[in-house]
Structures are given as C-alpha cells and as structure tokens.
Amino acid sequence: MRYAADPHDLLRWYDAHARALPWRVSPADRAAGVHPDPYRVWLSEVMLQQTTVAAVKAYFERFTTLWPTVGDLAAAPDAQVMGEWAGLGYYARARNLLKCARVVAEDHGGTFPDTHAGLMALPGIGPYTAAAIAAIAFDRPEVVVDGNVERVMARLHDIHTPLPKAKPELTEAAAHLTPETRPGDYAQAVMDLGATICTPKSPACGICPWMAPCAARRAGTAADLPRKTPKKPKPTRLGYAYVARRSDGAWLLEERPDSGLLGGMLGWPGSDWNNAPDPAPPLSADWHMIDAEARHTFTHFHLRLRILVAEVPNDTPPERGAFHPHHSFRPAHLPTVMRKVFDLAQGALADTI
DNA sequence: CATCCGTGGGC
DNA sequence: TGCCCAAGGAT
C-alpha cells in the first residue's frame, strides 16, 4: 500500500463530524472527562444489532424513559418489555435483554462488568457487543468488528475474499489499526465513517479522511466491496390466523412459545405456517374468511396469512389463548406481521356491522 | 460452520 | 415490485 491508514486521521475527522446520538457522549464532552453510562451503551448496542440508527432512536428514548437504570429494567414485567420491543424485530434480543439486566442487577450489584470476558458471559452479548461496550463505556482498546468495520477494512486493503470467509483477515486488519488512545471514540468513528461516507452503495470517497491510503479507492473497486457469498432464495409459506372479537371489545390473543419465530410475543391463534390447510379454530364460532390476506417477509421466507374473523358473545371460553380487554390492548405491542393481520381484520369486522 | 431470527427504508 | 441492507447472537 502507498500509505498506511492512520487512526488519528480518523479521530480528527470524528472530532469535527461525529453524529449526535441519544446514547453517545460527544468527543468534546468525552475529552472534558464525561463518561458514558454503561447501561445506556449496552442498551443501545443491543438495539443496534442488525438494526438501523433511525429505527432505534425512538425505542431507546422510550426504554430509558420507562427504565432509567438497569435495576429498573430488571424489575419490569416480561410482558411489558416484550410489548415495548414490538416492531423492532429479532425478539430474542428482548428476552436476552431482560435476562442480562436481571443478572447484572442480582449478581453484579447493578454494575456492568468492565472487561470483554466479563461482558461475553452475559446473555445477548457476543464478541462484537462485548468489544463495543468495553471500548465505548470503559475505554479499553478492544478490536471492535462489526459490519461497518468489515466494509471499511475490505476497502482500505482492497480485499476481494467474500464474507464470511474474509472475517479473519478483516479482523486482523482492524486489530492492526485499533489505537491505544481513545479506543472508544475510535470505535464510534469507524461506525460513523461507515454510516455517512464509506457507505455500502456509492461511497463518498472524495471526502473520506482515509482516501489517501485506501487501496479500493485507487483500484476503483470500493463500491463493489465487501464481496458476499450469494444468499439462498426465500420460499413462500402459507398460514391461517383467527381474529375473534368479543361483544365487549376484547380480542383473543395467544402468547407464542419462548423460542422460535416471534418467540415470547403476542399473536393471533392460527396454524404453524407450514402450508397446512385450515387448522382447528381457537374457539367455536361463525368464522368468516376475509378477502385480503396479510403479506409479510421475514429473514428467510415470505409469508401469506389468510385471515378468519368472528364476533363472539361475552361468555365464550376460548380453547386457545386469552381475551385481552379493549382498554388494555395495544396493536403497537404486536409484532409487525400480527399488527398487519389486526389492521385487515378490524377493517373487515367494521364492514360487517 | 450453517441456519435461524424482523423490520423499515432506499433504490 | 423485489431485492439489498443495518452497530450480531444463539444454537
């Protein structure tokens, strides 16, 4: 390479262009001796796993308003936390979030471990998140490797090996650059670079603080890196959902099993989405299949949900699930596919009155 | 090591 | 419209 990339060039850029984020201590405040709250760093890092900053902001504000400390979160009811997480996706994160909060509150006196190994031992914290918390909250010189770092390193060194095979050499490149001074700011600087300049598509190489040492910039390959192994096509699955509304306005819902898709979340009773025909209804009623079906795409398959609706009297005992009173039911506490079903079912029920 | 696990926005 | 993508972790 013509020049070696200098972490201090990136830190200088970060001092001038750092994004202001709700969970972040600005580089100026950090230099003045302000330390981040490990609880807020941890919460933001878990929310940001495979999730955009734009989507996380409102959830982060809501969670920290409801639960200002890890002890507050640890004491929260499971159902409330799952409901507040609804819409953010990857619901195992919410279940592990609560487990982690309770371990920290009960076994660590409400104080987060300050080492990579200590953090790794907690539920929902893997290699990346442990390194990010150790660096950002405790200023440890950990090698933080996320999607941004992989992209930036692949371009700096013009590495054409496809992910995930390229992971070791990208990690080695990242380790070589991680500075002993300001490791927390450095970790956040690489993420800001990846989010605002070294973006996946049409990177803004002309204004990049690492333009000079970037091999992909010289080779003209930046926009094509990192390479990735092609992914499988998604199959389409078919399922059925039953939406029952009681005369008093209560809705029949079911808590899904703790593991698997949408684990621990509320949903409408129905089939297992394996293309099986009409399953047994959750209660005996005059069911109507509505015209519209809910369409939703998950990580690894497309789903088409056929929707059956029914109005039932107040004394109807369900065979599956439980009725949720009208006043306490919040569609926003449903995972998105279930909220889509609700919107369609509610429209159909309104038309029949 | 491959698979499973959500969602909303951008193009 | 369909596909790609985003601060990964658990199994």
Automatic annotation (TrEMBL):
One Gene Ontology term from the biological process aspect of the record: mismatch repair
Cofactors: [4Fe-4S] cluster
Claim: Zinc is one of the keywords in the record: no
Keywords: 4Fe-4S, DNA damage, DNA repair, Glycosidase, Hydrolase, Iron, Iron-sulfur, Metal-binding
InterPro entries linked to this entry: A/G_AdeGlyc_MutY, DNA_glycosylase, Endonuclease-III-like_CS2, Endouclease-III_FeS-bd_BS, HhH-GPD_domain, HhH_base_excis_C, HhH_motif, MIG/MutY
Pfam families, A to Z: HHH (PF00633), HhH-GPD (PF00730), NUDIX_4 (PF14815)
Keyword Amino-acid biosynthesis: no
Molecular function GO labels: 4 iron, 4 sulfur cluster binding; 8-oxo-7,8-dihydroguanine DNA N-glycosylase activity; adenine/guanine mispair binding; metal ion binding; oxidized purine DNA binding; purine-specific mismatch base pair DNA N-glycosylase activity
Catalytic activity: Hydrolyzes free adenine bases from 7,8-dihydro-8-oxoguanine:adenine mismatched double-stranded DNA, leaving an apurinic site
Co-factor binding details: Binds 1 [4Fe-4S] cluster.
Its EC number(s): 3.2.2.31
Record domain HhH-GPD: where: 47-196
Role noted for this protein: Adenine glycosylase active on G-A mispairs. MutY also corrects error-prone DNA synthesis past GO lesions which are due to the oxidatively damaged form of guanine: 7,8-dihydro-8-oxoguanine (8-oxo-dGTP).
Family the entry assigns: Belongs to the Nth/MutY family.
Listed name of the protein: Adenine DNA glycosylase
